[in-house]
Amino acid sequence: MTKEQKVLLKVENLKKHFPVKGGIFGNKTLQHVKAVDGVSFEVMEGETFGIVGESGCGKSTTGRTILRLLEPTEGNIYFQGRNLAELNNSGMRKLRKDIQIVFQDPFASLNPRMKIQDIIEEPLINFGVTDRKERERRLLEVADQVGLTPAQLTRFPHEFSGGQRQRIGIARALISKPKLIIADEPVSALDVSIQSQVLNLMRDLQKELGLTYIFISHDLSVVKHFCDRIGVMYLGKMVEIAEKSRLYDKPMHPYAEALLSALPSPHPLKKKKRIILKGDVPSPSNPPSGCTFHPRCASCMDICKTDQPTLQVVEDQHAVSCHLYTEAGKHSFAAGEPV
Amino acid sequence: MVQRVLEVDKLKVGIRDDGRKISIVNGISFHLHKGETLGIVGESGCGKSMTSLSLMGLLPPGVERHDGDVRLGDLRFKDFTKKDWRKIRGKKISMIFQEPMSSLNPVYTIGEQIMEMILSHEKVSKKAARARALEMLKLVGIPRPEQVLDEYPYQLSGGMRQRVMIAIALSCNPEVLIADEPTTALDVTIQAQILELMKDIQNKLHMSIVLITHDLGVVAEMCDRVIVMYAGEVVEESSVVELFDHPKHPYTKGLIASLPDVEEQREYLSSIPGVVPAPGNMPSGCRFAPRCSLAHDRCIETPPQFTTESGSQVKCWLFEEKESEVAAT
């Protein structure tokens, strides 16, 4: 990544808490599920920023909150300098022309009663393109870009396979000429041979149209293949952000390290040393004190149980949120406290 | 010679559509040695799950075995009645499923569900069955097993439920365990835990495992031998090292090449063009021919047979031709 790159999207201390209702009439808020709890990151123009993490870590919620499909509880989202969190609904609607999303499940995200051409064209009608000829021109253009033939456009979603449906989803996202596409697990529902077709298509489109992607996935090898910079999330927090080769060569956060080591090796004879984490991910409604990872961490210190670490740049744009790399943590370690 | 615990012989499974037989699994044969792990890989719709269900006699309504047989020791599945199946299932051959969430009964406790299996196969008292259930929970590494015995499935996480499933499946000491995508619904860190557990238990109990998966990473991790399925047929069978080092069938090659490699960076992934043909509408020649870059006239006309090629079995004309050339000279 070069220094001259412009920041396209800047997320600052983003929070999304879901209330858990209870009581006799279901009108009392008992507690909050902190799905996203203070996430900050920047996305540069033209890059692919990956967000990885296990189920329930808040990666999809982060993606949807940026688009304000879910209202953020707190925090700022700057897109080309404008704060999305402060826009009203109609302002946000206009801005969605520039930020689009591709969903995970290609079977559930297309209306089964609409023809493909109507599905792809709908955003244009939404954004006020009234000229029918112009709409048709754009439709054929994006259909060609994603590899759909004009004859296929009059069919219905059930006539398509998973990979083709995902192409339709991508075409729908592209038609409004967005700058940023949030791809929420776009290939997880697809078989490997189809998965690679879709990933190659997304890369071609990025080159051709200068797109920026936020790529949300749980699949570490896909993320490594596709992204430039990667953020690792755990329980609603970003624990590490780094350029991909740095992250995969030298993960700093103990969670990132364990996550990467858990990846099955690509060859039977290349068995690697594996860090097996104990236990499960705690509930986001009642996260552990201090560092949320401390009950499962092998290098847990006393300070980890009480003080929450913050995301700090440690070296060369490699940011990590862990006491192993803070002054207070080093102090705690040197004092010979039980590890 | 190594003992074969399971032998599948030209198994054909399919549906009937207006009296016309449409096969989903089209005459596959394979065997399982004692103590080994055999992987079955393939993409969705290749028939791998139907194969595993027919090994358990659990084919869904409407799907039936058209032809072929399965032998487990000296038992032949062909002439089994419902009652025979009940005796075998769980006792000789057992299965764990993909979805640990939906394969446990939500209204019974974990203990009751493990005991049900033990009580239906062995003449033991309830007390003894409960003690055995506790032992099984300990074996699969569940923390606080005494309490978990009286808890309900909703109180456990996905990884823990899969451990319970394994405990149930193994409670009567089966000879063969069929694991149908056992870790697909789980996160990578939990997947690593479960795979480790399965290997560990296999060593302890000398079980044979049939592992069905679409994840080649899991295959590399777990299996000794692998069969690759495509569109209801086995296209290649080989040892796991041979499969990854020298894949032979163009489909296997394509499958391995389309995996993103964590160690090596390429800008584009290679991909296999096209999609899997639908059952009932299969090409008459080699079923992979329409997607194969090396296909020629013969591939489109006649289906290939198995050929042995440096220790692997492969169903492709490319290798058969080589052999016939050798024979001619």
Description of the molecule:
The complex is a heterodimer of chains A (339) and B (329). Helices cover 31% and strands 24% of the residues of chain A. Chain A has helices spanning 59-66, 89-95, 116-126, 132-146, 162-174, 192-209, 220-226, 244-249, 254-261, 302-306, 327-334, and strands spanning 7-22, 28-44, 48-52, 74-79, 82-83, 99-102, 180-184, 212-217, 229-234, 237-243, 312-315, 318-320. In chain A, a hairpin with a 2-residue loop joins β9 (229-234) and β10 (237-243). With 339 residues, chain A is an alpha/beta fold. Chain A is built from eleven helices and twelve strands. Chain A has a single domain (7-98, 176-334), classed as P-loop containing nucleotide triphosphate hydrolases (Rossmann fold). With 329 residues, chain B is of the alpha/beta class. Helix content of chain B is 35%, strand content 25%. Chain B has an eight-stranded mixed β-sheet with strand order 6-7-8-3-9-10-12-11, sandwiched between helices. In chain B, a hairpin with a 2-residue loop joins β4 (63-72) and β5. In chain B, α3 (110-121) packs parallel to α6 (158-170) and α6 (158-170) packs parallel to α7. Chain B starts with a strand and ends with a helix. In chain B, 43% of the residues are buried. Chains A and B meet through α6, α7 and α9 of A and α7, α8 and α9 of B.
Question: How many strands appear in the DSSP assignment of chain B?
Answer: 12
Overall pLDDT level of chain B: 87
Mean pLDDT of chain A: 88
> Class by helix and strand content of chain A?
alpha/beta
Give a brief outline of the structure.
The complex is a heterodimer of chains A (about 350) and B (about 325). Chain A has eleven helices and twelve strands.
